[in-house]
Amino acid sequence: MKGKLRYAPAVICMLAIFISSSRSGEQLDSVLPWFQEWLPFLTDFNPMHYVAYFILALTISYGMGKRAGTWKGCLLNIALCVLYGITDEWHQSFVPMRSPDLLDLLHDGMGAAAASLLVLLFYSLFNRRRTRNYSTR
């Protein structure tokens, strides 16, 4: 994929987050037992913030390409995810039985930071290995 089309997975992920956030508290509570069958330790959907924003950060990294493997790209990715998290929390203020929560935003940022740092580490290790292979020839 070239250019802006590389960001399509990130847009799809943002759309999925938006749709999930549009569900009322009552709707989410009715689906929780189904998730608990697969994940018995799940008492609420708070861990899903980590997962959703981890995936969002990975998709943004894909869109960024090699820039995601720099500190500047890593920080930009986290900032974009947190910004989207802010808009998501604001959006929830209009949904019945939902409200904005700073703790949710913290979880969003933590998921995004974990993914962004993982991408940065991957690029660092990959580039170190590639550089070492060229220098031994």
TrEMBL record:
What name does this protein carry?
A: VanZ family protein
- Using the record's annotation, list all stretches that form the VanZ-like domain: 11-122
Q: Which residues cross the membrane?
A: 48-64, 69-86, 106-126
NCBIfam families named among the record's database cross-references: vanZ_1
Listed A to Z, the keywords are: Membrane, Transmembrane, Transmembrane helix
Stored InterPro entries: VanZ-like (IPR006976)
Which organism's genome codes for this protein? Answer: Cohnella boryungensis
- Give the top-rank taxon of the lineage listed in the UniProt record for this protein: Bacteria
